[in-house]
Structure formats: C-alpha cells, structure tokens
Amino acid sequence: MKRQCLLAGIIILSIAGFSQGQQNELGVSFDLSYHSKWLSKGVEAYGQQGALFKTVDVDFYGTGFGLEVTHRNATASGYVDKQRFDYRPYYKSTLFEGEPYAMNYDISVGYEHYPGLDRRRAGTTFEWIFAFSWPKILPKGFTPSYIAHYEYPAGSGYTNREVTGWVHRFILGYDMAVPQLPNSLHLSTEVAYYDGLGNKAHDWGYFTVGLATKFDITENLSFVPGIYHQKTLDESISSRKDITYTILSMKYKF
C-alpha cells in the first residue's frame, strides 16, 4: 500500500508541475541506441545477442517532471517474448545550486510491459531509480554519482517474489578535452553492490570501465558512441568474467 501511495503522489505532483509550467515549451527527444550486449545491472539479459532501444522522452515544460517510454528488443531471434516496453515518469532537479556541493538528482519509477506475455508469467516489475551526482565537489572534470535501483513484483500473487531487492551503483566520471575531438572524451568507472535483487548474494557484483564521446551532426541531432568492459565479481551475476560491449546512440531533440 505504501508503494502505491508513493506512486500516486508522484503522479499528482507531475500533474501539478505540468499545470504550473505551461508557459515554457514542451520538450520531446528521441533516442535510438544499439547495444552489442544488453547488460541489465551487470546481467546479460539477451545472452550473446545485442539489443535495440527506442526511447521517447517528454519534458513537461521545464518543470523537472517528465515521462520516458522505451521499447527494447533483441537483435536476433529467440527472445521475441522478452521484448518489452518501459513506462517511466520522473522528476529531476538540483539542490544547493551555485555551491561546491551542488547535487543533481533524478527520481523515477518504471513499469515493465511484455506485450507477448501474461503479466504474471512475464514476472512484470516496478523499478524505482534514485540517481544523484555532484558535478562541482571534485576538481574540474570529475563527477561522482550514486544510483540506487529498487525492484519488486508489479502485483500480488506473482511468482517472482524473489526479485525484490536493491542494487547500489557507485560511478566516477571524468570529461577529458581531446584536441582531435569536437567534444570531450568521457571516461567512466563503476562498481555495483547487489543487495538482495533477484535472490543473488549480498556482495559486489561487477566493475565496469568505459569511454564515450559525442558528435554533433546538426543542432538537434547527435551521435554518441561508447565502448565498455565489465569485470564480473560475482558469478551469480554472470558466468563470464570479462564482457566487452559497445553502445551506439543517435539522439534527436524536436
């Protein structure tokens, strides 16, 4: 009941923010991303197959409230029933703006929908994401972040009760200027701690390093390539110790 009340509260606040911010423009963007492997919190969700993500992000008039709708599917056969839609309302803002300890935060809740499966058989879940970053607290270019995921079954009587739990992700990013590139080269490191999600061990799950940058094709269109390497720390997350993958994204802002 507390979870449903919290979700209802976010929807009410979204409507209030929508009505208060109509003097600004509605923001809409589209993201098409190819993942050579889709690692969902360290887990190879489509095995050795890649994935396509199509995301529409609607920003409600600059109020901080918004809605993301994502469709994801494998790039090869064998995972037709695992294609899914995610519906994720969010609120993002900044605290202590102008201070060295300024903090950006993004709070959202997502609902999974598998169009080819019954909800109970699909193991449909809600997932809360609490994301925080501190862009000024370290020397220029460095940004530490913390992201917490909390996931649980989307209804009573579901057979996937063991899914309930947390994952805590600790990230350090660095933007490095490279004369040969139009935008900075983003270096990232991430380590994740599993805290009950999926009935896995309460332990460090994986460590990831990555490189990415952005190329502005037009004023509204950009291409973002990235390459990443995951070191699996707990074999219950993945039987493969080393996983290298790429993410190629095209982003368009209407």
Topology:
Elements: H1 2-20, E1 27-35, E2 39-40, E3 43-44, E4 51-59, E5 65-74, E6 84-95, E7 103-113, H2 119-122, E8 125-133, E9 142-153, E10 165-176, E11 185-195, E12 203-212, E13 215-216, E14 221-232, E15 242-253
Antiparallel strand pairs: 1-4, 1-15, 2-3, 4-5, 5-6, 6-7, 7-8, 8-9, 9-10, 10-11, 11-12, 12-14, 13-14, 14-15
Describe the overall structure.
By secondary structure, the chain is mainly β. The protein has a single domain, classed as monomeric porin ompg (Porin), CATH 2.40.160.40. Helix content is 9%, strand content 53%. It is globular, with a radius of gyration of 19 Å.
Give the gist of this structure.
The chain is mostly beta strands and 254 residues long. The chain is built from 2 helices and 15 strands. It is globular, with a radius of gyration of 19 Å.
